[in-house]
Amino acid sequence: MDPDLTLIFAFILTLLMIILPFAYLINKKVAEHEERKLELKARIEEAKAAQLRDNRQVDDLLEDRVRVLERIATDRSPALAAEIEDLRKEKVQ
Questions:
Q1: Distance (Å, rounded) from C-alpha 80 to C-alpha 54?
Q2: How many whole angstroms separate alpha carbon 46 and alpha carbon 67?
Q3: What domain range is 37 assigned to?
Q4: Which residues neighbour 80 within 8 Å (Cβ) at sequence distance 6 or greater?
Q5: CA atoms lying within 13 Å on the CB side of residue 83
Q6: Which site from 1, 8, 71, 87 is most exposed, i.e. has the minimal number of CB atoms within 10 Å?
Q7: Cα–Cα distance between 47 and 82 in angstroms, integer?
Q8: What is the residue-level pLDDT of the chain in tens, covering all 93 positions?
Q9: How far apart are CA 38 and CA 17, in angstroms?
Q10: Distance between CA atoms of 89 and 91, rounded to whole angstroms?
Q11: How far is CA 30 from CA 17, 19, 20, 66, in A?
């Protein structure tokens, strides 16, 4: 074999032995970084879903209160007045 060809081959092998481990480490870090980003995105989505659930619960409570207020404002029956007075008495006690 030609000595120059052997020298070139050895040089290329040496470069590969130096470059490939660094490329592997960089690829590994990039994969870990992407995995972490996906994990954080999932946590953000979970937090948003929890916030929406809480908002829906608050909306439901407010809707119930508005229904009660509408009933109080529109219903003039003596039974309703008696119920309100009973609630006032329970609240005081």
A1: 32
A2: 32
A3: 3-92
A4: 71, 72
A5: 9
A6: 1
A7: 45
A8: 788 999 999 999 999 999 999 999 999 999 999 999 999 999 999 999 999 999 999 998 899 888 888 877 787 777 777 877 887 887 666
A9: 32
A10: 5
A11: 21, 16, 15, 53
